[in-house]
User: What shape does this take?
Amino acid sequence: MNGHLLMAFLLFTGFSRSFDIFMPEAEFDKVLRGGSLDGFITAKEFWAIIGDIRRTETNALYLSTPMSIGRSYEKRSLDAFYITDNTSQLPNYQQTKNIILFTSVHHSREPLSLTMIVLMVREILKLVRGAGHNKMKELLRDNIIFFLPIMNVDSYVYINENYFGAHSKQIRMIRKNRHGTPGCADWLGGVDLNRNYDMKFGMDEEGSSSNPCSEDYRGIRPFSEPETSALKAYVDSHPNIVSDVNIHTYGNAWIYPYNYVRDKNNHLLEQKNRLFFDFYNEFTSQIHKKDMRALFGNAAFALDYSTNGEAGDWFTGKKHILNIDVELGNPDPRSEEFYPPQSILADIVRYNWVAMKEYLYRHVVEFTHRVVLFRSQANFEVINRSISGLLGSRLFFEPVFDGEVYSGSYETRYCIKDLMTDTCHSVKRFSGSFQEDIRGRHVLEVQLVFKNPQDLQRLQGLKMRIQRPHPYLNYRDQHYLFKKSA
Assistant: This one.
């Protein structure tokens, strides 16, 4: 964006070149509904907002400079950015922390998803920069957040440039990328990027189409498109991605894999990945308690149709990454369209932030535990209920007797289990400490075997320290004292 256009945009939306994260909500709502396309923001306006936020040194500490993960069909850059607790340490974080991934604008006629990301960036930074301790600060201790805002950049720019021009009605409804096919109208060509993934690709003609002029045309093969291929390369090169959210519009629905099945109860997911299935049920129950009226389930349930070659199924089925597809909306019937009225844009994204924030908080690495005692052995089952794992950390354990560290004779072992009911199949011995990744939704079982069985009765608990691989951040080791359960 050139200087004159940027200044005009900043004046139009009502905020200065130094974005005030703590501006009044009414002022920020002007930003959320202040884009030049009937309130929707263009690609240039989106990146101007991100650039303006980064102009303050404090925001730049948490919000990275944009970076490219590849090129589109028309050779535009696929730009992305991170939010961390220290952008100067980003190269290290990309290896030692969990990555939470967000994508949007797979379909170019869904501009409100960009507004959602603007809101998310602002709300996350408000919490991170705010006074006192909060869960967002805890979240960034073990995680970084990666945003790929405009997957379908060619078609989105095309809509931006022709929004008010000839054939605007048809052009605004373009869904696919710009890889056109002879014989299809200009606004009917291209490939549906969200049917171009390698999970049940082309399984049938109901969940995607082999007709190049159809709006859900899947392409000639999985990842045939440079946009999806670039995302695949990023995912393949970052094995520490733990979750992905694909933001879409519209429908007021939070959609869980598997989406290629017609079973609305999603028994396939329950069979294939019980840990993910249980999380989705927990999350659904949690959001319902907040009186958020939205649909939660797979595509067959939430949308009443199945899909194949879809991104969410690929993330879950092929990459073992927990996935949610969000169809933005709210109970207002006016939200049920790709271009809802300008007056309700802020209301829609704020409504979805309630669930999105809780989803992010489910990545805070927290432990609960239970203790099982028998004969001369104590098993401490330390449960990581987070989506995210504890990566590259060293764990220290010391049994406690009468308020002091036990110095008698005992043997220590540990194993990692999917569920508390599982049997330890790979038990390892250790002395004092060990280094092991504790994946999200997993159980660390620490076993203490005492030479003198009577010592088991005097055991008060287990002292656990976590030494994370980020000493330069002055994170103190976390201390837990697990007292003996009844």
About this structure: The chain is about 30% helix and 25% strand. The chain has a mean pLDDT of 91. The chain has two domains: 3-361, 367-483. The radius of gyration is 25 Å.
